[in-house]
Write a structure and sequence with these properties.
Number of strands: 22
Oligomer: single chain
Strand content: 25-35%
Number of helices: 10
Helix content: 25-40%
Distance between the termini: 133 Å
Structural class: alpha+beta
Shape: elongated
Radius of gyration: 40 Å
């Protein structure tokens, strides 16, 4: 044992240090205590070792669990990506949602789900999933996308205002002793509607905002007019910025006797076409059309694919013949076949509501309340001209397509169970009555000899835009077959029995053109047979087989058809 004072070594059992004489009994007690300390230290080391082993086991369990979650997350994302390639959005959505339930802090599923909801025309779902992605991941990429979805509500509408759909009524205003104009609806301004899509196919979405400016100056009548402006916004440097703008020259929501405006999207492959048509017809104070149409693409700026050079029009359109054929060819390439056909027939370069659309953004339809056409010479009294009703319809993303997919079937009757002409054709006749007035007519004739009488119905507001639309009955419902010009036209059956065509005689101002209208591959075709100048006093073309016809306000022709 060792002396605690001088450190000298002493024999076991010594009571005093052999060197300094200090009692060393305490040293013995210390040694006794040291044994206990060693035992405690050994226990402590055992405990620490056990804790280390337990911690290592726990870490191993966590690592295995993490690897398992990562694998399940990766498997679901891979599966969802495969479904995306196959355009199976329902299964892709389900797999991305499962991936989020496994790991809600990864950004990819949120971004992909937003794209799925864009494809499915469900912008509210896209906005909601991006908002959740911002909260759960803190991702700057998701935040930028979310800002695009909230920009209209949080920035544009507070700054510019928002238009409301509905029925508006306006009236004529006097401008000088011998002229008048239709007052615009001044209450509507700001955002009409918006769309978020990848318009330029660069993998990132853009925001298309449709805005109404109600402060455009009309220098002729010294008033303010409404005009439509297209604005395209993109994410840049973490901010939403306006990258391009396209202004429509035509006035809207209050122009003249008749108004028809629309904006819609048409997708062809990877390209999104933005299609607009704005037209008006004057027939009380003037006689003629004004129209503006365009088909745009976006590639960092708006590019015109086809359309008019601003607003144009007139009472006759021979001057636009070559331009109209070029435009019709381009429209046909992107699937706007009805517009192409109408433009070739009339040379009026405006788009048709009958074309198939992928997304309708808004429409405006206006017409005079009165059916009569008063003539005004000299002093004008605006009260005699009546008022204009305007239907302003704004469509949410995907709403038009969902409504378009809903269809109704029409059943037959007891007399002829295969063909119920009233059930099939009456809705079309009633729609024409509502749109154009009671003076339009319709006729029935079996043009192709299949035992079913086709409906020939005159659509339009005057000789300047009259067209005959032709329908047949298929599976109990009316099926559109095509159209042809109805301007100054009388319809006759064929000159010889057994022939399958209708003779359309266009006769006006000592000029006569004869067409044979027939069916080829289920579609209406028109072939010019003759054209001549009719000597003054001579008779125009006629034959004994004029088609039976009635006013659109009279359904008796349908009820008596067999």
């Amino acid at each position: 044992m060792y002396c605690r004072k001088c450190g000298a070594e002493n024999d076991a059992g010594s009571r005093f240090c052999c060197r300094c004489g200090v009692p060393i009994i305490e040293v013995q007690e210390e040694e006794a205590g040291g044994g206990s300390h060693k035992r405690n230290r050994k226990i402590a080391w055992i405990t620490v070792t056990a804790c280390i082993l337990l911690a290592a086991a726990a870490i191993a369990v966590v690592m295995v669990s993490k690897q398992s979650r990562e694998k399940r997350f990766g498997d679901n994302v891979a599966r969802a990506d495969k479904y995306m390639e196959e355009l199976d959005y329902e299964k892709a959505e389900d797999s991305y949602l499962k991936a989020i339930s496994i790991d809600e802090k990864q950004e990819e599923p949120y971004i992909q789900l937003a794209r799925i909801y864009e494809k499915k025309n469900e912008p509210e779902k896209a906005r909601a999933i991006l908002e959740k992605g911002v909260q759960k991941t803190g991702s700057g990429t998701i935040k930028n996308k979310y800002n695009l979805y909230t920009y209209v509500d949080e920035v544009l509408i507070p700054e510019l205002g928002q238009c409301s759909p509905g029925t508006y009524t306006t009236e004529y205003k006097k401008s000088g002793q011998y002229s008048a104009y239709v007052e615009s609806i001044h209450s509507e301004k700001g955002v009409v509607t918006s769309r978020i899509m990848d318009f330029d196919s660069d993998g990132e979405e853009e925001l298309l905002a449709v805005v109404m400016d109600n402060t455009a100056e009309d220098e002729l009548f010294h008033t303010q007019r409404n005009k439509i402006v297209l604005q395209m916004y993109e994410n840049s440097g973490g901010k939403v910025v306006k990258n391009a703008e396209w202004g429509v020259m035509s006035n809207v929501l209050g122009t003249i006797d008749f108004e028809e405006d629309m904006l819609f999207l048409k997708e062809q492959g990877e390209t999104v076409f933005i299609c607009g048509s704005f037209s008006s017809l004057a027939y009380t104070l003037a006689d003629g059309w004004g129209f503006e149409s365009f088909v745009l693409t976006y590639d960092g700026g708006f590019q015109k694919y086809t359309g008019t050079d601003g607003e144009t029009g007139g009472s006759s359109f021979e001057f636009y013949e070559s331009e109209s054929y070029i435009m019709a060819d381009r429209l046909e390439r992107i699937g706007l076949t009805r517009s192409a056909s109408d433009i070739r027939d009339t040379w009026m370069m405006k788009l048709s509501m009958e074309d198939e659309k992928d997304d309708l953004l808004f429409t405006i339809a206006g017409k005079r309340q009165q059916d009569n056409f008063p003539s005004h010479y000299g002093d004008i009294n605006p009260e005699e001209l009546g008022k204009i009703d305007l239907e302003f319809a704004i469509w949410q993303q995907g709403a038009y397509k969902r409504q378009e997919s809903q269809s109704t079937a029409v059943s037959g009757n007891d007399t002829n169970p295969g063909v119920d002409y009233r059930a099939a054709y009456a809705p079309i006749v009633e729609q024409v009555l509502e749109e154009y007035g009671k003076y339009n007519t319709y006729a029935l004739w079996d043009i192709d000899g299949d035992g079913i009488q086709e409906l020939f119905i005159l659509c339009g507001h005057s000789e300047a835009d009259y067209m005959y639309e032709v329908y047949t009955v298929s599976d109990g419902s009316a099926a559109y077959m095509g159209d042809f010009s109805g301007s100054h036209t009388v319809l006759y059956g064929p000159e010889e029995d057994g022939e399958t065509y209708v003779t359309a005689a266009q006769c006006h101002m000592d000029w006569e053109t004869i067409y044979h209208v027939s069916v080829a591959d289920g579609k209406i075709t028109s072939e010019q047979i003759s054209q001549r100048e009719v000597p003054r006093g001579a008779d125009y073309y006629t034959n004994p087989n004029r088609l039976p016809y009635a006013d659109v306000s009279d359904l008796s022709l349908l009820e008596g058809a067999e």
